[in-house]
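To: structure subgroup
Subject: Chain for Friday's discussion

All,

I'm putting the inputs and outputs inline so they're searchable in the archive.
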Amino acid sequence: MIPTLAARWRQAVASNPAGTFLVWEGPDGSTHTWTYAEFDDLVARVAGGLVARGVEAGSAVHLALTNSPTFVAVWLAAANLGAWIVPSDPSATSRELAGHLERTRPVVGLCGATRAEAYQWAVRDLEHPPVVEVIDEADTALAGLAGAPVRWADRPAPGPRDRAAVMFTSGTTSAPKGVEITQANYAFAGDVMAAAAQLGMEDRQLVVLPLFHANAQYYSFASAISVGASVALMHTFSASGFLAQAARHQATHASLFAAPIRMILARGATPVEGLRLRHCWYAQNLTEDQYEQISSLLGCRPRQLYGMTETIPAVLTCRQLDAAPDVMGIQTLGCEVDVWTSDGQPAGPDEVGEVVVRGEPGITLFAGYLDDPGTTAASFRDGWFRTGDLASRDAEGRFRFAGRRSDVLKVAGENVSVVEVEAVIADHPSVLEVAVTGEPDPVRDEVPVAFVVQHPERPPVSVDELRAWCEERLAKSKRPHRFELVDELPRTSVGKIRKFLLTASTSGSPDQPKEKQHG
């Protein structure tokens, strides 16, 4: 029997009804705690509210929410109903939200009160607009969303291949790809990640990363549900408050990216008494000095991992006794990973090649890209999913990162398609052409930089105007950190842009300061 997310939730509630499931710390610092049984009651009432609004098995529910009890309850309610969620970055622009909504046609759409105007703009021209609910993301009662409790015994159980989510992720095309996640995918992610982290019922995950992202869903919540552990959910990440939150909520496990770790270190953090952390995942390389500093602060040596929305669990994870800042990890138990040369042959020891992952689509790998069988097929070769990331593997099986396709940047853990950014800038009437590259950033790993050629027959465009244009059309992570106005773009003899020759202008300073980090 292939497990499902709905079945894993039912098992956790039955096995640990009086055990803590969720501890929520709101923006004002207040906390609220639910046991598994109490939260299951809330999930049943929220499911009743969704049903009253037209949601049924196979329906989509759109979420443009920050971390909140509502997000968790709606996710689990939809999963148990056999419906599926579409989580979007709540800071996305109206145009981006409209694109997600148009492609998934949700029955219900939920947004935070501070984003209501932008959300209403996103739905106004849709042929099939959802029922929109504006949510107080700090609310713990969820009375406005609740309905008559659904009795799970009266409803058919979702199947393993039933869709449970579509998560949009940037790729190498201008339109973000909708990654189809099944009930079995979530269960597999939870089981694998719980085992990899040695997570038990008595443990507690600290979640500060955004819930719309696969990391928080796969590595933290799904793994906790898999073993009946608890989760302490913070409304947002705070670099200055992270250690105190971990101690206050007695967290044993956490998950971060390298960028938030650098933010914590940049705040001049000092050790906090009462920490119980014994495990922390992180993604992307740290320097040796940064790694030793954060290890001292956390009281444990963080373990690097590697995974994508498409790969479901992290397919590479560092062993507890072999954690190192420059190692992505070894093949995770239950996963199959290889490194291939450009001709599809296994790479030799320490030879750089593309990371490829094998599994069963819809069970141990994503089911496919939404309404895009062509891109889905092109993403596989001989049954192996091609990640587009480059790495080498040593004789001991340790993978080391060696770069990625040039058209996808990693900005503070988020995939950003340079093709998507280029398409938005190119739409400006005064832009002739544009090339976007990545620039190293000490906090966010990479940031986009745009090199723009102005149209000779149109009014000149200023850097400020380009910045405003992007602010209206792109989420923060996708907006160029700097714009360079250039006379032409360097090209090969056949006209291809030679992006590696694009460098920052020596005249003038960056036009846009680094965004202020919360905390």
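Points worth raising on Friday:
Residues 408-501 form a domain with the GMP Synthetase; Chain A, domain 3 fold (CATH 3.30.300.30).
The longest strand covers residues 431-441.

D.
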